[in-house]
Write a structure and sequence with these properties.
Blueprint: E1 9-10, E2 13-14, H1 15-36, H2 45-70, H3 72-102, H4 107-138, H5 142-159, H6 171-179, E3 192-196, E4 203-207, H7 209-235, H8 239-251, H9 253-263, H10 270-290, H11 298-326
Antiparallel strand pairs: 1-2, 3-4
Helix pairs in contact: 2-3, 2-8, 2-9, 3-7, 3-8, 3-9, 3-10, 3-11, 4-7, 4-8, 5-7, 5-10, 7-10, 10-11
């Protein structure tokens, strides 16, 4: 059998590596859905923490393989991207919690929404990263645009207080309610149901609030990708490293969600840390140019990024503990 096509270059990486990664992701998701969550059940905080640890271990193990097979520079770039994307994904938890609350999604079915949401993310991120990689390869100056965007975004996060998203007045929510038949309540784990339309008296398809929640979760990821995709391209322009670090960081998000949703108030100072990370990642491209370096040293990039995030997490836990004692 002819297998030479497996070694053909695709976006700078042999095709077999892309296929191997996608096969690994499919195997992980199949194990998650077919074994760990074969039956619908509520996920408690303890189980959420264990599953999150498993996904983090898988992501770091893949990073170790990248380090061994592609070299230390690629390994450091992967780990930096993984840490940054994982941290940025934490900020998404708050929005997802608001979406679930607005649509009154029972905890029993939240994992289903998050699971199908991850499948959408895998496709959407592939498209966004593929387009980004093509544009950066053709127009290298775009990296400076990405870097400037990250700096501005980070500064804005530091000094401008975000307003809590109003899901009820969201344009997409209003569009779905006006254009589609929507059920008043949930119908178990179903996204679509067939029932009598009061206006016509005929059986017709309705979308459920569970499906609307899924759509909003996907849209939320696209919005957050506007920050995360430029951030990872500012770390490395290797599409394989960009995509794999993104996906492995996001894969464990739905497992981590159930633990974080219960203690999101403990991470009060994580957002300023995220802002500083974005400013650092964006500025290091300009700093490297000023110093006459080809690129900012990967080891320093990972170390500084990790130090900022770890400091934000530690300070948050310390300050919220003191607040709790004072109360």
């Amino acid at each position: 059998m002819e297998t030479s096509f497996l070694f053909a270059d695709w976006l700078g990486t042999p095709l077999w590596m892309w296929l191997g990664f996608l096969g690994l992701v499919i195997a992980i998701l199949s194990f998650d859905l077919g074994v760990l969550h074969k039956e619908n059940k509520e996920i408690g905080v303890a189980e959420s923490v264990k599953l999150s640890a498993l996904y983090i271990a898988l992501g770091l193990s893949f990073g170790a393989w990248v380090w061994w097979y592609l070299g230390s520079e690629s390994g450091l770039a992967y780990l930096t991207g993984f840490v940054v994307e994982k941290t940025l994904a934490l900020d998404n938890v708050f929005v997802i919690a608001l979406i679930f609350s607005f649509f009154a999604v029972p905890r029993l079915y939240q994992h289903r929404v998050l699971f199908w949401g991850i499948l959408g993310v895998i496709v959407l991120r592939a498209i966004m990263i593929g387009v980004g990689a093509t544009l950066v390869a053709e127009f290298s100056w775009l990296l400076y645009i990405f870097a400037a965007f990250l700096i501005v975004t980070g500064i804005k996060m530091l000094f401008v207080k975000d307003a809590e998203p109003d899901v009820s007045n969201n344009v997409l929510v209003r569009f779905m309610r006006n254009r589609f038949n929507v059920t008043d309540g949930h119908h178990g784990e179903k996204f679509f149901v067939k029932q009598v339309n009061p206006a016509t008296g005929k059986l017709t398809w309705f979308i459920t609030p569970l499906f609307m929640a899924l759509v909003m979760v996907e849209v939320a990821d696209v919005i957050f990708a506007v920050d995360s995709v430029p951030a990872i391209f500012a770390i490395t322009t290797d599409p394989f490293i960009v995509y794999t670090s993104n996906i492995f960081a996001i894969l464990g998000l739905r497992a981590l969600y159930f633990a974080l949703a219960a203690m999101i108030h403990r991470f009060k100072y994580l957002k300023p840390a995220l802002a500083l990370v974005l400013v650092f990642i964006g500025s290091k491209i300009f700093v490297a140019d000023l110093l006459g370096l080809e690129k900012f040293p990967a080891a320093f990039s990972l170390g500084i990024t990790f130090a900022i995030i770890a400091s934000g997490v530690a300070w948050s836990l310390i300050k919220t503990r003191e607040t709790g004692k004072a109360a």
